[in-house]
Specification:
Length: 209
Amino acid sequence: MALRIVNQFGESVASAVRDAFPDADVVPVTVDGPAPGLTADVLYGGWGDWSTIGRWAELVPWVQLAGTGVDRVPAQLFDGRVVTCARGASAVPISEFVLAAMLAFEKQIPEVWVKAPPEHWNLAWLGTLHDRTLGLVGLGGIGVAVAERALAFGMRILALRRTESPSPVAGVEVVGSLADLLPQVDHLVLAAPATARTRGLIDADAWRS
């Protein structure tokens, strides 16, 4: 029997699935909900209106989320089915954005774009990532990708992670607490999952560190 996949993300994703698995039957998510009697093996989706997605999820024993976070997934979705996330799938674009944001801060972009050309093209007065200290809260797929790119800029990297495991990236120093991390960093990246344990982790007291 062909695998039946309920797909939330349109024809471009459906075409990619069919190219990889020609025997797959790809059914699109619709606002009207599934047809009576329809069954399926897996739902690929998880963004947007869960009142719509939830009706389709009832058909399947497995939900594959397209993103990493599960904090907005209704608790009832986990009853009676396997729910998996796409951990690491967005690590490259997110880590590139993080580096772009830090560079924009140090290089004062876009402010330097809108001013008249300087008398001398010497922008040594702008900041640099070199020798700056980066603090990572979380060292999963995204945190690792950020660390790898930040090392190439000559940054010192400190990381706080949930476990006491050593860093999977050479050159990254794991610290034991926020109190150890925050006073030392020039840039802070939150790459931890949003859970009851991490919500409110960075509060007013943390900013005063």
